[in-house]
Amino acid sequence: MGTSNRIVLPAMDMNVSEGGEIEQSEIDHYAARAAGGAGLIITGACAIAFPYGAASMKEPGLSDDKFIPGIKALADAIHAAGSKLCIQSTHHGKVARVDTANDRPVLAPNEPDYRYSMDALADCTPEELAKMGAATAGKQTTYHAMTKEDIDWLITSWTDAAERVAKGGADAIEIHVAHGYILGVFLNQRDNLRTDEYGGSLENRARLACQVISAVKERVGDKLAILVRVAGEEYGQEGALSLQESIEASKLFEAAGADAIHVTGWGRNPFDNFTDGPLPNKVGAYLENAAEIKKHVSIPVIAVGRMLPEISEKAIAENKVDFAAMGRQLLADPELPNKLREGKFDQVRPCINCFLCVGENFFDDTPFCAVNPALGNEKLLPLKPASASKHIVVVGSGPSGMESARVLAERGHRVTLIDKADRLGGTMWFSTMTTPDNERLLRWLKSELKRLRVAVKLNTPATVETIRALNPDHIIVATGAVRPKPDMPGGDLPNVQTGDTLRAMMLGTATAAEAGLVLSTMGKLGRLSGLTKSPEFVRQFTKYWLPMGKNVVVIGGSLVGLELAEFLAERGRKVTLVHEKQQLGLPLAMPRRWTAVKDNLAHGVQIHRNATVDRITEKSVEFTVNGEAQSAPADMVVYADGTTAAAPVADELRGAGFSVDVVGDAGAVNYIHGAIHSAWEATVEL
Ligand SMILES: Cc1cc2nc3c(=O)[nH]c(=O)nc-3n(C[C@H](O)[C@H](O)[C@H](O)COP(=O)(O)O)c2cc1C
Ligand code: SF4
């Protein structure tokens, strides 16, 4: 059931519209978010001049009447679900990869003089680089400085596109004046070096956007509301669009006929600044900019950028902004608005800010979601009840075990979840310390297990006897990976920890809260005199944190090692990261990987790539890079490599005659995304 409310689905391209035609799976995707209660659905970018100015050949087109039936089918589905439809309209300008792919010069105000650093690409695999460049392989982007005729063509194309949007029965059109697309590039003094009436002053730079807005208003203003998407600020380069300029531009857009301003953000370098904008790491990242713009216009303002429900509600109640757009959160849980309306806050599946969805955009691929396997496959929802209810035992309470238990219980099976540890969460519990967003997922999974009355038995190792006593019809083994000590000279020294021993150390005697306290206060002891009075804190601190010493060497710079290195360095340790490959941070999504590498360097982590460890001593790690022997001081060594899938218990149980499936890292190491997806696949039809 859709409804009128202040929650907006912002544009997120699905990359499925082959040849510009809106696909049924895309309609299902948006309709699910409308049925989930979002008041307004904004489509992903649609190309006004498709295929010209498109980012990909899978972007919906608005350039021909043949696209109107697709818009109509989408509008009907959204309206049937009780929501409103807005089509985002764009010309991608300098990021129009389709133009480069077809040897067409891309439109620009002028030949750009700004080239960004490509250093981050050193952390992409050859496969990723090939996929990223697939459409434009071997092609050189050339630019065409727009003439007055090109400008007239653009305005006409935009108004014709808007007319098709209106004929398709949509309620609104969003005109994109941000994210490095053509109108955003004209607005920016670093990109726009023109000396005619379209360059120079802010009024001149905003002229093209204003002309598009007023031409669209004149043609279809009685049928469509006009939203304008603008960056409240651009990050990563001095002299790029400032908040003050954005305020002035928004006033001009209002005067030109805009009915609402949608405030986003933009990082100037897609490799260095992507997690500043357009996809922020920070909660409520653009809210203050949106609030500031709202003070200067009289039309509604939409804020986006990790607008979590709690901050959205407050911001709207305080009249700071009028609407909250929630992108990734609605990918993770399309039912979020309905759940909030019904007071089921605990039931909202959280986005863990992993950037995997948008990572696919770099490859012109369809986004998938780490925590919502039904994204792009909405027909699978709601979950179908099991044809016969069985008793299923799930072994292991990491994300794959908990997700298996959740799906099975939701489908009507009787589920018992056992774990040898004394708490739920497996390695995810540990990862919540370095990656706090994972804590939200853990909390949600726990509360779902409670709601669905899954029987949880902790301190219960899976042996043939314990399982036999439970008498299950089927078993899901989700025991996670193993992390052996390093097989190298000195690998068994007491100063060497693996993910498993570190976890066991924390699990052994600390409660989650205590361990979290110890870790989160590392290095800040002097400022925490109140806490140091707690005997438990002193005990934990003395036992775990002090012996770690000042110098820590992390061996292995994949996902875990990279995040752990930053975590320790942030808390005052002198960290050296020794990594055997070139690319750091695999398999983190590229934008998050790039940021993590940058943050490690900013925190002073000494990074050695392509390094082979020769031996570990009680005080150092000796390694070789390009034939040169090197040494790093080490009071403690954390071995973050060598994670291996293994499920010996599955073989044992199969040998005893049980029916068994293996999910998560026990079957194939793929972290939270792999854990959730493999659990879903094993259970959605069981
Ligand atoms: C997979 C994906 C695709 C996106 N595609 C677009 C797009 O086509 N046009 C656009 O203006 N923004 C796009 N965005 C940015 C979102 O509209 C939104 O501004 C951003 O995700 C920040 O909001 P959030 O933190 O709520 O996700 C995309 C984001 C994601 C995650
Ligand atoms: S893939 Fe990750 S960032 Fe994207 S919506 Fe899902 S959980 Fe959030």
What does this 3D model show about the protein?
Pfam families: NAD_binding_8, Oxidored_FMN, Pyr_redox_2. It comes from Glutamicibacter mysorens. There is one protein chain. The longest helix has 20 residues, at 148-167. The chain has 26 helices and 24 strands. The two termini are 29 Å apart. It has 686 residues and is an alpha/beta fold. The chain has an 8-stranded parallel beta barrel, surrounded by 7 helices. Residues 508-512 and 521-533 have low confidence and may be disordered. It binds flavin mononucleotide and iron/sulfur cluster. Residues 328, 331-332, 351-357, 369-371 line the site of iron/sulfur cluster.
Topology:
Layout: E1 7-9, H1 24-35, E2 40-42, E3 46-47, H2 68-80, E4 84-90, H3 97-101, E5 106-108, H4 126-132, E6 143-145, H5 148-167, E7 172-177, H6 182-187, H7 202-205, H8 207-220, E8 225-235, H9 243-256, E9 260-267, H10 287-294, E10 301-303, H11 309-317, E11 323-325, H12 328-332, H13 336-341, H14 356-359, E12 391-395, H15 399-410, E13 414-418, H16 426-434, H17 437-451, E14 455-457, H18 464-470, E15 474-477, E16 496-498, H19 499-509, H20 512-520, H21 529-532, H22 535-545, E17 551-555, H23 559-570, E18 574-578, H24 590-602, E19 606-608, E20 611-616, E21 620-625, E22 628-633, E23 636-639, H25 648-655, E24 660-662, H26 671-683
Parallel strand pairs: 1-2, 1-11, 2-4, 3-4, 4-7, 5-6, 7-8, 8-9, 9-10, 10-11, 12-13, 12-15, 13-14, 15-24, 16-23, 17-18, 17-23, 18-19
Antiparallel strand pairs: 20-21, 21-22
The structure holds flavin mononucleotide and iron/sulfur cluster (SF4).
Residues 328, 331-332, 351-357, 369-371 line the site of iron/sulfur cluster.
